[in-house]
Amino acid sequence: MATQPGVETLQAPDSRSVTAASVRREAVIRAALVGVFLLIAFWPILVGIYGSWFDENAYMEHGLLVVPAALYMAWDKREALKAIPPQSSGWGAWWVGCGALVALLGVTTQWFWLSRMAFLVSLVGGIAVAFGWTIVRALSYPLWTLLLMITPPTFLFERLTLSLQLLASRLGEVCLEALGYSVLRQGNILEMVGIKLSVEEACSGIRSLLAILFVCVLYNYFFVKGWRMKTALLVLAVPIAIIGNAVRIIATGIMGQYKPEWVSGSVHETLGYITVAAAAIGVILTHSLMLAIQRVRHPAHA
User: Fold this and answer.
1) How many beta carbons lie within 10 A of that of residue 134, not counting itself?
2) Residue 164 shares a structural domain with residue 105
3) Is residue 10 part of a domain?
4) What is the DSSP string of the chain?
5) Most buried pick, 183, 220, 238, 285, via CB within 10 A?
6) In the listed set 150, 175, 210, which residue is the last one of a domain according to the structure?
7) Do the beta carbons of residue 287 and residue 219 sit within 8 Å?
């Protein structure tokens, strides 16, 4: 039918676009409701996680950066996430419920690591309830990153700390003797001329190890391609952190021979931060070396 001059025709909105917008709006409402539930139900646990980042004995200072980093990763995937239609999953509700029960068990037994891990289980379930498992898979890397905001279980943390203390002491002893310095080691104590170096828990390398693992996870996300390369670099970050801490002990021992006051205090703390930065650079150099080896082995893909 012909239209009259000067009369603008109106097109009915596409029913599919209306339906898609409605589905997304419902998903956002579900996400808001689930978020409020998780916030209320896990509030004491979330407060405990936050407090652990400031605990001097937990060495979790990097925890302050984990959540912002994970949120940025999720925001960086926003275009890919928009292309995934929300499909609420009932199984997600089971995950939320199981997480809540495990959290209750953890609180009852005062196993704080268990209750904090249970929050992540419920968070994954909540995302599945709101948006579906496809979204959960798309957000797998940011969700795995959140593990780094939780202090390792006490029994593992203490065992790892003790092992790192003894390893750092041995490495320091061997390297200092190789450099011509007289060293007597008793457990985690290194006796040198005029000074005693005690490799305490804070100097065991556990703090730098946790920080370097976090840095490596960030570096993997932005600069490393392929899960094999990412996994290899994450594994190699452990010896890099251990070697970096050994260098710190060696440097402390050498400085102590000339300036005993540098063995402790602000100089000692500054040296620790420098060590972490140097280990982070070591991760980058290791990745560059791995890429060079890859280009040599597979020149067609270079």
Assistant:
1) 15
2) no
3) no
4) -PPPTT----PPPPHHHHHHHHHHHHHHHHHHHHHHHHHHHTHHHHHHHHHHTT-TTTT-TTHHHHHHHHHHHHHHTHHHHHTSPP---HHHHHHHHHHHHHHHHHHHHT-HHHHHHHHHHHHHHHHHHHT-HHHHHHTHHHHHHGGGGSPPPHHHHHHHHHHHHHHHHHHHHHHHHHTT---EEETTEEEETTEEEE--GGGSSHHHHHHHHHHHHHHHHHH--SHHHHHHHHHHHHHHHHHHHHHHHHHHHHHHHH-GGGGSSHHHHHHHHHHHHHHHHHHHHHHHHHHHHHHHH-GGG-
5) 220
6) 150
7) yes
In a domain, 164, yes or no: yes
Contact 124, 143 (CB under 8 A): yes
8 falls in which pLDDT band (50, 70, 90)? very low
In a domain, 247, yes or no: yes
CA distance 218 to 164: 24
Residues 267 and 140 in one domain: no
Query: How many distinct structural domains can be found in the chain?
Result: 2
196 and 118 assigned to the same domain: no
pTM, two decimal places: 0.83
Say whether both 73 and 198 belong to one domain. no
Q: Is residue 8 part of a domain?
A: no
Distance in angstroms (rounded) separating the CA atoms of residues 80 and 107: 38
The pair of three-digit structure tokens given for residue 174, joined into one six-digit string? 């061997």
Range of the domain at 216: 155-301
pLDDT at 57: 78
**Residue 62 half-sphere exposure, CB side, CA atoms within 13 Å?**
26
